[in-house]
């Protein structure tokens, strides 16, 4: 089975296909026994996925989260007066406006990437799966305990 067909079957299983395309694919499933077997296998795998039972938070978890939140509020990047005074607010607004203007100058319209097609249709769950599977393992995030 090719990638496009697998993608369509996954979208059918998840209910992401338009009615006309889903109807055509279901007709094709009835005509092609091999494709039907592959779809049934995919459906069994999908239905066998189960979330683990919810576990209660460990003792003291809420207190640790609260303590950590209090620590982070004390670690500010800017002095306390920066956002509480008129001068600080004006400086922040000027820095923000300057950054936007500088970014607009750097991003020339001729070199800008065309995002229209991407924004017109959000990637489906199946497409995002394929993108994730194409990335090499060494580039993926892994918790290594350090």
**Tally of strands:** 0
Global structural class: mainly alpha
* Percent strand: under 5%
Mean pLDDT: 78
The rounded distance between the terminal residues' Cα atoms is: 41 Å
- Strand count, sense and closure of the main sheet? none
Low-pLDDT residue spans: none
Count of discrete alpha- or pi-helical segments spanning 4 or more residues: 7
Radius of gyration from CA coordinates? 26 Å
Estimate the global geometry from the Cα principal axes: flat
**H and E string:** HHHHHHH
- Helix residue percentage: 55-70%
Keywords:
146 residues, mainly alpha, 0% strand, flat
Description:
With 146 residues, the chain is mainly alpha-helical. It has a domain at 1-48 and 82-128. Helices cover 62% and strands 0% of the residues. It has seven helices and no strands. It has helices at 3-14, 19-31, 33-48, 61-74, 86-106, 116-120, 125-134. The model has no long low-confidence stretch (mean pLDDT 78).
């Amino acid at each position: 089975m090719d990638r496009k067909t697998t993608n369509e079957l996954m979208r059918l299983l998840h209910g992401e296909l338009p009615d006309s395309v889903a109807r055509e694919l279901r007709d094709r499933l009835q005509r092609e026994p091999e494709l039907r077997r592959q779809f049934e296998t995919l459906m069994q795998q999908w239905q066998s996925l189960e979330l683990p039972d919810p576990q209660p938070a460990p003792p003291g978890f809420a207190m640790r989260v609260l303590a950590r939140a209090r620590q982070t509020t004390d670690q500010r990047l800017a002095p306390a007066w920066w956002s509480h005074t008129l001068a600080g607010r004006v400086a922040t607004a000027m820095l923000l406006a300057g950054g936007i203007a500088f970014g607009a100058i750097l991003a020339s319209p001729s070199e800008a990437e065309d995002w229209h097609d991407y924004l017109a249709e959000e990637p489906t769950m199946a497409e995002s799966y394929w993108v994730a599977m194409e990335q090499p393992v060494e580039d993926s995030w892994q918790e290594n305990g350090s």
